[in-house]
Amino acid sequence: MAAPADLGVLQVMALRAMLLASIRRFFEERGFVEVETPAIVPSPGLDVHLAAFEVRAWRGEAVGWLATSPEYQMKRLLSAGAERIFQLCRSYRAEEQGRHHEREFTMLEWYRANASSDDLIRDTEELVAFVANALDQPAPEVQPPWQRLTVDEALQFHANVDLDALVNDEEQFFRVWAEEVQPRLGNERPVVVTDWPSSMASLAKLKPNGMADRFEAFFRGVELCNGFGELTDAAEQRRRFEQDQAERRAAGAPVYPIDKRFLDDLERGMPESGGNALGVDRLLMLLLGADSIQDVMLFPEERL
To answer: Which residues share a beta bridge with 87?
Structure first.
């Protein structure tokens, strides 16, 4: 096979088709149902670090935002009784651009009712190994089980600092994480990082130890996915959304509305669940040893 940087458009097209087909086969063999949710949504996600594209009709009236993730709508399906669902979709983030980022990219998300974050971690390990074999890239380093570290362990091992020293200063935390920790994660084999600070829980529930039931997998210094043991408490989720809005307002960022129908469905009852969001372009890049996701995309922004 040609070096990733030398791949022609037809080779990239064929590899992406194989990748998507293998992902679908993996989930279908395990009883998942593929779903579709809208690209234009009433709330794009309130995380202070996310920037969304606003959508306007031809007369100028705002009609919503392009989805930064299909998370809210997929969780509404869990509340409606869905048990195992997955989706391959385009997602949009306005201020993300670089070797590992595009403003428009392909996201894989899946959710399991009556499942834990540990179940989703095992799904992730098995999925990556399955896809690698399907692409004839059977890298032994991606075979499960993967290494696991807590955030505190990763900080101590790679930056010689305790989480307690950074937990009250998110800016400092993310600087140390980005500069000293993440580039060293998963260089030999993928690593799953668990037990994130409660302030970074987002839509994850809290564990008995007070940490967020959230995990991220890293391979060759690149974040591959972000998964949760899902929060099912509507009141707590509303409180977090309102806090996110306040933080966005204080930072001078656009303040997106709360998705009230998502909270209504959460209030009606969502089972204990696990979910994960995985970057498809990053997965292909990592399995092929490419330098950037642009190398494995048919039409990255730079070539439009």
So the answer is: 109
Half-sphere exposure of 251 (CA within 13 A, CB side): 16
User: Mapping DSSP to helix (H, G, I), strand (E, B) and coil, where does residue 223 land?
Assistant: strand
Chain CA centroid to CA 45, Å: 13
From 73, 66, 90, 67, select the one nearest 16 (Cα to Cα): 90
Q: Could you give phi then psi for residue 248, rounded to 5 degrees? A: -65, -45
Model-level pTM? 0.95
Question: By the 8 A CB rule, do 7 and 58 touch?
Answer: no
d(C-alpha 100, C-alpha 104), whole Å = 12
Q: Which long-range contacts (CB under 8 A, 24 or more apart) does 71-74 make?
A: 71/45, 71/109, 71/203, 71/275, 71/277, 72/41, 72/43, 72/45, 72/259, 72/262, 73/37, 73/38, 73/41, 73/262, 74/35, 74/37, 74/109, 74/111, 74/275
CA distance 227 to 120: 7
**In a 10 Å sphere around its CB, with 0-12 CB exposed, 13-18 middle and 19+ buried, how is residue 272 labelled?**
middle
Give residue-wise pLDDT tens across range 164-218.
Answer: 999 999 999 999 999 999 999 999 999 999 999 999 999 999 999 999 999 999 9
In angstroms, the CA 87 to CA 199 distance is 28
Cβ-based burial of 61 (10 A; exposed 0-12, middle 13-18, buried ≥19):
exposed
pLDDT digits (tens, 9 = 90+) for 238-248: 999 999 999 99
